[in-house]
């Protein structure tokens, strides 16, 4: 953004910024503004009573906690997947590459029902897990699995192009200069990947916080134990309590926005401090 | 902002708005209903269309919309132009009247039998042979029994389940509010999964194989047994249960505006006619006038002692507030 005063070959700053603002207003700001406006009909005390009810607070812990955990798991395993896909040639590689995007395309309800069928006590996996004392479906663990499922593509797809651009010569140079494998990964590869990894993490997290369709089938929805925050919103709506629903939505929006801002600034910081000879700054 | 930008945006708005203005000339009725009535109205609509054609010479097309009762009511509140609504409980219809004023608040007095042309009750669906020996509500809280019911906060059907259980406890010898609350608290400790809707709960019980007993609408229970095989499930009728009244009404303001007031009223009246009552009974809904339905269909309904929400709880408005609104009895069960 610091280069905004330099001469440009192609004109169109006003036009594109105008479209950006108009488009953002219509698609994002207007509906979100309506949420805040509706909530504003509550007094501060009423707002606080709604959003700090014990049952609602329990859902924040589950929703945000599990979303962060799911994003973290996806960051680790998404990176491994991307690595395998970029660095190695193996039969069926293109098939696996295409499979990664499936959680994007699948209606979330289908994912939820499929996962529940798999992990319920009469399911393919559940029948072996339950005797071990591991209950997945209808427990918070089930929520985590659903969120890992829907968030997977984000990390893979953000890290993959960066990995593709990363020359193996860098690693070879590091090795020839005497770096161990871990040192090569930690000091040569990771700094380049970190910004993309954080973006993937942020996207997977944001997606998980708002997820309803898949989670609702596998969560079991027991109050204080396995209810997610979006379900609280639906619950309020079922009581025709529109303002109560928007109040909880406001909390979700503000917390999500704060966390995303934090992750994005972290990403910007790693991008500037970890910049290497590849010349990328995404 | 530059003026060309504003002009461009305005143009886009006008363009979008011009699509919304198209109007229809033929007579159509939109019936906004809830999930388990899909098959019933699929049967009923063509018969009504034929009846109306014979009577007036007019062609009428009936469109159906199905979903969770509360969700459907919100759609109507938010502007879905329903000529008639046929929902799972009066509370949802009350909400439409209160929020939109599109029909009078005393709508439920306009048609016979609390505006419910058919009713149902809450019964138990158990696994074949009834391995846990479940006969009545009291058996649901025995050690080791798992009960499947959807969440009363998000499902209209689940509210009927809850109230049926409450009414049972209240009517036991020495029963009172405190004992009923203790019973309900105990009952929900036996519920491992709270699905958000009735169909979800049925799936959990039937497909996932979870739980020993499913609390269900009688018509849903019979359908499950028929579709999935009498060799897998059986219906148990408790000693006493609630009359679940899914009411119907014309949305006056919409029908008047669309010029469908007459046909909409006839549509609902036809539900009470011999033809309508026969169809209801065929789909396991208890007809308001059983004498009009097919005797063999009526004979399928087990005799059961019942109570009503008006009689035992003083109507939906009061019940909703005391039990299901935030901070009500259902919330207290889980949060103390």
From TrEMBL, chain A:
Question: Which is an annotated Pfam family here?
Answer: BPD_transp_1
**Segments passing through the bilayer:** 21-44, 64-86, 98-120, 136-156, 188-209, 215-235, 242-263
Residue intervals of the ABC transmembrane type-1 domain: 60-263
Q: Which InterPro entries match?
A: CysT_permease, MetI-like, MetI-like_sf, Sulph_transpt2
UniProt keyword list: Membrane, Sulfate transport, Transmembrane, Transmembrane helix, Transport
Q: Where in the cell is it found?
A: Cell membrane
Where is it mostly found? membrane
This protein's membrane topology, according to the annotation, is: Multi-pass membrane protein
Q: Which Gene3D superfamilies match?
A: MetI-like
Where does the signal peptide begin and end? none
Functional description taken from the UniProt entry: Part of the ABC transporter complex (TC 3.A.1.6.1) involved in sulfate/thiosulfate import. Part of the ABC transporter complex CysAWTP (TC 3.A.1.6.1) involved in sulfate/thiosulfate import. Probably responsible for the translocation of the substrate across the membrane.
Q: How does it assemble?
A: The complex is composed of two ATP-binding proteins (CysA), two transmembrane proteins (CysT and CysW) and a solute-binding protein (CysP).
Family per UniProt?
A: Belongs to the binding-protein-dependent transport system permease family. CysTW subfamily.
Q: What is this protein called?
A: Sulfate transport system permease protein CysT
Species whose genome carries this gene: Aromatoleum toluvorans
UniProtKB/TrEMBL annotation, chain B:
UniProt keyword Transport, yes or no: yes
* Keywords from the named record: Periplasm, Signal, Sulfate transport, Transport
- Superkingdom classification of source: Bacteria
Signal peptide feature range:
1-25
Q: Where in the cell is it found?
A: Periplasm
Q: What is its main location?
A: periplasm
Q: Name one Pfam family in it.
A: SBP_bac_11
InterPro entries according to UniProt: Sulphate/thiosulphate-bd_CS, Sulphate/thiosulphate_BS, Thiosulph/SO4-bd
Establish whether keyword Transport is in the entry: yes
Any coiled-coil regions, as ranges: none
Write out the function statement from the record.
This protein specifically binds sulfate and is involved in its transmembrane transport.
Similarity annotation: Belongs to the prokaryotic sulfate-binding protein family.
Protein name, per record: Sulfate-binding protein
Its taxonomic path starts at: Bacteria, Pseudomonadati, Pseudomonadota, Betaproteobacteria, Rhodocyclales
């Amino acid at each position: 953004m610091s280069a905004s005063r330099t001469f440009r070959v192609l004109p169109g700053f006003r036009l594109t910024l105008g479209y950006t603002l108009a488009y953002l207003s219509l698609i994002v700001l207007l509906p979100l503004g309506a949420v805040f406006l509706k909530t504003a009909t509550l007094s501060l005390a009423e707002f606080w009573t709604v959003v700090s009810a014990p049952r609602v607070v329990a859902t924040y812990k589950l929703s945000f906690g599990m979303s962060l955990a799911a994003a973290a798991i996806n960051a680790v395993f998404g990176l491994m997947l991307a690595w395998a896909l970029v660095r190695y040639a193996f039969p069926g590689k293109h098939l696996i590459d295409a499979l990664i995007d499936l959680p994007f395309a699948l209606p979330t309800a289908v994912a939820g029902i499929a996962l529940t069928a798999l992990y319920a006590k009469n399911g393919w996996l559940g029948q072996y897990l339950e005797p071990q004392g591991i209950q997945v479906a209808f427990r918070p663990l089930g929520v985590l699995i659903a969120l890992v499922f829907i968030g997977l593509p984000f990390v893979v797809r953000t890290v993959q192009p960066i990995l593709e651009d990363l020359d193996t010569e860098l690693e070879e140079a590091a090795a020839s200069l005497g770096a161990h494998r871990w040192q090569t990964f930690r000091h040569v590869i990771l700094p380049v990947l970190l910004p993309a990894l954080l973006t993937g993490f942020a996207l997977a997290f944001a997606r998980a916080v708002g997820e309803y369709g898949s989670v609702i089938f596998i969560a079991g929805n027991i109050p204080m134990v396995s209810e997610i925050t979006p379900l609280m919103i639906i619950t309020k709506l079922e009581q025709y309590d529109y303002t109560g629903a928007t109040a909880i939505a406001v909390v979700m929006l503000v917390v999500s926005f704060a966390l995303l801002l934090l992750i994005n600034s972290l990403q910007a910081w790693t991008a500037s401090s970890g910049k290497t000879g590849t010349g990328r700054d995404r | 902002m530059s003026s060309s930008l504003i002009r461009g945006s305005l143009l886009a708005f006008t363009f979008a708005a011009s699509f919304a203005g198209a109007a229809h000339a033929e007579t159509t009725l939109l019936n906004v209903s809830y999930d388990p009535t899909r098959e019933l109205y699929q049967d009923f609509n063509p018969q009504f269309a034929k009846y109306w054609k014979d009577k007036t010479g007019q062609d009428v097309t009936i469109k159906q919309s199905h979903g969770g009762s509360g969700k459907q009511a919100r759609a109507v509140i938010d502007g879905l132009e329903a000529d008639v609504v046929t929902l799972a409980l009066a509370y949802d219809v009350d909400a439409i009247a209160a929020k939109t004023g599109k029909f009078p608040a005393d709508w439920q007095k306009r048609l016979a039998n609390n505006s419910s042309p058919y009713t149902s009750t809450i019964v138990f669906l158990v696994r074949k042979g009834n391995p846990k020996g479940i006969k009545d509500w009291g058996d649901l809280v025995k050690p080791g029994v798992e009960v499947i019911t959807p969440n009363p906060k998000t499902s209209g059907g689940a509210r009927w389940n809850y109230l049926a259980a409450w009414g049972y406890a209240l009517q036991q010898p020495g029963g009172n509010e405190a004992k009923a609350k203790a019973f309900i608290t105990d009952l929900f400790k036996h519920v491992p999964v709270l699905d958000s809707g009735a169909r979800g709960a049925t799936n959990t019980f039937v497909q996932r194989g979870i739980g020993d007993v499913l609390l269900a609408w009688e018509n849903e229970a019979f359908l499950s047994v028929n579709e999935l095989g009498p060799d897998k499930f059986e219906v148990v009728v408790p000693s006493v249960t609630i009359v679940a009244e899914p009411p119907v009404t014309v949305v006056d303001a919409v029908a008047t505006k669309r010029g469908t007031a007459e046909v909409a009223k006839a549509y609902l009246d036809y539900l009470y006619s011999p033809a309508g009552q026969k169809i209801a009974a065929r789909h396991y809904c208890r007809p308001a006038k059983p004498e009009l339905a097919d005797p063999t269909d009526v004979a399928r309904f087990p005799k059961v002692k019942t109570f009503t929400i008006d009689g035992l709880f003083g109507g939906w408005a009061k019940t909703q507030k005391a039990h299901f609104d935030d901070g009500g009895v259902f919330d207290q069960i889980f949060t103390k």
